[in-house]
Specification:
Oligomer: single chain
Distance between the termini: 14 Å
Helix content: 25-40%
Order of helices and strands: EHEHEH
Strand content: 15-25%
Largest sheet: 3 strands, antiparallel
Number of helices: 3
């Protein structure tokens, strides 16, 4: 799995994940927020990361309009 984009808000990551899934790209969100109990932890831990399989990286970046 490779990180294709980092977010500061979980809802943004979830929207991006939905966009990827709607286009056939499986993804996973990783957030150091104590299971949602401490959303403030995210800011000190580098944000919320959206991961895809290595083989889907380029497709995901195109869909998200993100830069590597």
């Amino acid at each position: 799995m490779v990180c294709v984009k980092t977010f500061y808000y979980k809802h943004e990551a979830e929207l991006a994940q939905g966009l990827l899934e709607a286009n056939g790209v499986a993804s996973m969100i990783s957030a150091a927020d104590a299971g949602g109990m401490r959303p403030d932890y995210v800011f000190g831990m580098g944000g919320i990361r959206l991961y895809v399989e290595e083989r889907d990286k380029e497709t995901a970046l195109e869909i998200l309009g993100a830069e590597t």
